[in-house]
Amino acid sequence: MTYQYEVEDIVKLKKKHPCGSFEWEILRVGADFRLKCQGCGHQIMVARKIVEKNTKDLKKHLPEA
Q: Please, which residues have CB within 8 angstroms of residue 2's CB and are 6 or more apart in sequence?
């Protein structure tokens, strides 16, 4: 399944972060993604290919009206 990744979406990955969280907020999209852990706030840069391969679910960001 292909996902449409956008900034502020929440991506759920297959492997959990050492803090125990599976969910990451997307801060930057491009050839690399900047992700922020929803558990501890740690930020990482990851290649797009790795994120696409390890994505389990994607929660779209809903703009506030």
A: 52
- What single letter denotes the amino acid at residue 14? K
Name 12's bridge partners: 23, 57
Find the angle CA(31)-CA(61)-CA(36) to the nearest 5 degrees. 55
Long-range contacts at 36-40 (CB < 8 A, ≥ 24 apart): 38/10
pTM passes above 0.85: yes
Cα–Cα distance measured from residue 2 to residue 58, given in angstroms and rounded to the nearest whole number: 10
Pairing of strands 23-28, 43-47: unpaired
Taking only the tens place, the pLDDT of each residue in 1-58 is 778 999 999 999 999 999 999 999 999 999 999 999 999 999 999 999 999 999 999 9
Residue type, 31: A
